[in-house]
Design a protein that fits this description.
3 strands, single chain, 4 helices, mainly alpha, 3-stranded antiparallel beta sheet
């Protein structure tokens, strides 16, 4: 999960988190459109998810959560196995 300068949380998946985060920080053309111009960005949470299918499923679940639950995950007050 990436936090924008205004505090919004962005959730995505990647096979190479450091590379993908660098793309988001650099902006166009490979960074997510929704993050452009919203920096500085901060990587606040990442977790291995197995294969791409499992990662997509996990991403979908997290995107359905209310902000309070996402913040609990970021702060370590909630772990992924317990959360799902």
């Amino acid at each position: 999960m990436v936090r924008t300068a205004n505090g919004a949380l962005y959730t995505g998946i990647s096979t190479d988190v450091p590379r993908r985060f660098a793309e988001h920080q650099a902006g166009a053309p490979k960074g997510a459109r929704s993050l452009r111009g919203k920096g500085p960005l901060e990587l606040v949470f990442s977790s291995p998810a197995g294969n791409r299918s499992q990662a997509s499923r996990l991403e979908w679940h997290i995107k359905q959560w209310p902000r309070q639950r996402k913040e609990a995950l970021v702060l370590g007050k909630l772990s992924l196995p317990d959360a799902l």
